Amino acid sequence: MSARIEDSDIVEVAHVHAPEQTLKTPVSETTTTIPEKEFSIHSHGLEHEVFTDGRVAPTDEEKRTLRRVADRVPWTAYTVAFVELCERFSYYGTTAVFVNFIQQPLPAGSRTGAGFDGQSGALGMGQRASTGLTMFNTFWCYLMPIAGAWVADEFWGRLKTIQASIGFAMVGHILLIISAIPTVIVHPNGAIACFTIGLVIFGIGAGGFKSNIAPLIAEQYKETRQWVKVIPKSGERVIVDPAQTITRIFLYFYFMINVGALLGSIAMVYAEKYVGFWLSFLLPTLMFCFCPVVLFLCRNKYDVTPPTGSVVLKALKLWSLALRGTWSWNPVTLVKNLRDDDFWERVKPSKIENRPQWMTFDDQWVDEMRRAIKACAVFLWYPIYWLTYGQMTGNLTSQAATMDLDGAPNDIISNLDPLALIIFIPIMDQFIYPGIRKMGFTFTPLKKIFVGYMMATMAMISATVIQYYIYKLSPCGSHASSCEKTAPINVWVQTVPYVLIAFSEIFAAITGYEYAYTKAPKNMKSLVQSLFLFMNAISSAIAQALVSLSADPLLIWNYGFVAVLAFVGGVLFYITHYSLDKQEDQLNNLKQSKFLGRGNQVQDEKV
Transmembrane segments in this chain: where (predicted)? Predict the structure, then answer.
């Protein structure tokens, strides 16, 4: 039940606009929005402000002392999560077999690429080619979200952009199927041409989908203010915190991603091994067909932010105006100027006498822009993290092929990552995170990201150790990848790096989605989300420079170098943003701007 206002609590009432009976009306535990504060009361020895629906706002003292809990998640968010599950099933189910399709040769006598008791393959282009193409696919799929976000925020809106992106992805899926059918796969030049064109079109769709699906699921939850609630069983007073609810939404959003990834990857790997690559590309396409169906059926139930026009242009003009008089070729001076409190304060509309015609927003939107820029500065460190994650989708799969598989396909082992996430995400949500909060420790997003870096570092250290022993024990020594016999090491030793990568995702990747959503202005959430995703594309570009290390006898250096990068990057990340970490509550509780961009005006306040 909610923390109710009793007659004995009311000592002094200020600015009362609601009738007296409002004070005694029982409050539902879920509403769509929290209204503005209307009056104040004295309760539990403290002065509280109260919202018009009777909910009690926490005081500063209570914010420091009371435990914070998540609110209920709207049912529409779960339908969006199911759509994400289907899309990720199709994406990971398809990409799970890319390495073998590109790297390994077509087995003798096979017209489908199925390896049965041997190694599946198709094009036989080698490890460097497979690493290069899979890195390109990642780069492209994480570059395209910027275009998808721009179209969504300014022209079509999120829902329409997602539907159009599904159309592009479907065409890409079909081309991938064609590249793997028996009459095409036996002609490597034709197959690789069709495959590459399919990758490009597939990436356009995947990118446009990805930048908009995360904001769509999060915006189904409309609460924006903290309020005090009494837990019926224990009588404990807690704060219902929208930030904790958004954390929960993205935890289960990522949970559904990995359910789709696990089911898709496992099924397609065995389809590749015992039937052929055409089936590995066909089944994900069929699963993908559920996406437009669910979105169409629920289209009138979703809360969506409409397209907003020229908001990006206004943001760039505001940034340009703020830079005047602060630019310096000295990087130290420039950073100092950018971090100065006056940098954004002096370009607020209320501070400018002769406002330019394009300045149709309010002061609050400038604060939101400042917050978004701070978030983007956090994202600049993510390419280092994604570099460690990217080892899982390429080099670790190839590493598995050099060890004793006991009949398991080499690309089935990577599913330890989504399996670990499916197991540990609910445990984190129900036990670990609440336990940390009960201990009184404020586990802020930036602290979580730092822990994610350290987990990624340990994952790469373990991969380095495994590679060392592969070279040591392989009959071919430091050329294990081209050896006919595998090293006498059980492949399931890779459980260590994969589980560590999974934990790093919980702390770094999921928190990145959350941070991008909570720190973006309402009319730029897809764009800020796309900038977070774009860091993965930058990481893939960096990884291209390391392709020369993705072959024997240099793989120890590859994993070791990435481990050092992750550790140094994580430490520098937290040192750089230590002061921002202290502002978390302040940034989350900014007064929301009423400027949405439509009609180039500040939206009239609704009572």
Answer: 133-152, 164-184, 190-209, 249-271, 277-298, 372-392, 449-471, 491-510, 531-550, 556-575
